[in-house]
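Notebook entry, structure prediction.
Reason for the run: the old model in the group folder had no record of what sequence produced it. Starting over properly, with the input documented here first.
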Amino acid sequence: MEIARDRRTGTKRIGELLVAAGVIRQEVLAEALQIAKKSSTPVGRVLLTIGELSERDLLAAIEVQAMLRENLISSEFAIRALSVAITGKLPLEEAFRRLGFKAPADREVIATGELGELLIAAGVITQPVLEECLRQSEENNLPLGRCLVLARAVSSNLLTSALTAQVLVRDGKITYDQAIAGLQAAFRKTQTIEQSLSETGALRAPQDEKTVKVGDLLHKAGLLSESDKVSAIEKGLVENTPVGQILVQAGMISPSVLDETLKLQRLVNEGKIIVLQAAEILRQANSRGVPIEVIMSERNTKSHEAENINRLMPLIRKADLLGAQELQRAEALARDLKMTLGEVIISKDMLNAKIVEACNQAKKLIEDGIVTEKHAIKVLAFCKKSGAMFADALKSVPADIEIDDHEEAEDEGDNKGFLGGIFGIFKKK
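New structure, fully documented this time:
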C-alpha cells in the first residue's frame, strides 16, 4: 500500500501539479498564468475556460492538492494519482485504489473544496446550500466564500473564521477536528475562531497588538476592503499562494506596497511597533507616496521631541507657557488617546520652536547653577509675551538680588559681569 512520504518538497500549486502529471504543457500553464494575472481569476478556472481541463479534472487537482497540504500523501504519489485519474478519465477514488492507496476513513474524497467541506462538517451549512453556492461561484466567477456571504448562508465574520481555520490547519497549528469544533463554537457564540480555540486550549489567546497578517494590516491602513481581503485569503488557500501575491496579481496593491507591508509586518512580529502604529505608518506612506522609512524617521524625530517636552514640563507649567485652558485640553487628550503630554503638544503644535528652545536654554542654565529657577521662569514668561529670543529676554529681566544701598554700585557691577558671562555663553554657542 502506498504511504505518505518524502514531503520535504512542500505543497505544489495547481498548475505545477498538472504539469508534473503530464496533463498540461508548461507553455500552456505560462499562458494561463498571464491570463489569470490580468483577469484576477484562479489559474485552474482559466485552464477550465480555455478548454485544457474539465470540471472533474479541476476538482480532482484541488482535492489532490488538499491532501498534499494535509500531509496525507507524498508529492510523488499526488502526481501519479492525478495523472492516472485525468488521463484515464477515472474518479479520483478509483485512481487511488489502483495505486494501492485508501484515504483515511474519516475523510471522504468529495468535490466541494476545503472551505465547503469544513463548513458542512461544522454544521454551518447544508450540502444543498453548498451546491447552489458552488454553482453561483462558477457562473459568476466569484470565490465560493463571497457567494456564501451573498446568499446569507454565512456571515462575513464566520467566513473569516472558516478561512482562518483552514490556514491554521494547513500550517499545522491545529488539527482538522479542532478546526471543526472551533468553527462550531465561533458560529454558536458569534465570536472569532481564535477566541473559540483559546477557550479550549487548542490555541494561545489572540494577541492582536503583537502579530499581524498582511491582509489585516492593509485593511487597517485603509488600503484594502474587508471583502477583498477575505476573497484574497480564500483564493490564496485554493492556489496555495501568499495573500500578498494574490493581491498584487489582482492589481489591488502594487509590488512596492506589498514590500512595505511585509517590512512593517516583520517589525510588528518582532515587537518593535504595535499594529496600530504599523497601520498608520503604512497609511501615511501610501498617501504621501514616500517609503515607510521616511515616515518612521519623522516619527522617531517627533518621539525625541515629545520626550524633550516631557522633560521641560515643570518649566512650561510654572512659566504658564501654555495657559490653563490649553494645558487642560492637552491633559484630556493625553488621557483619552493614551499618549504622553509631550506627544499631544507636539502633534497639536501647541508650542512653537522658539519657546521650546528657550526652555532648553533655561533648563541648562538652571542645571549649571548660572540662574535660579525663579529667574528663568520670569525670563521664559517674558519670551512668551514679547516674542524675544531667550538671550535678549535675559538682558531685559534682571535677576532677583537683594542688596544694601552702600553695596549697590559694587553689586550692580557684579550683576553686569554676571549677565555678561551668560551672554558670552550664548555667543559661544
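Summary: The first helix runs from residue 14 to 20.
The old model has been moved to the deprecated folder.
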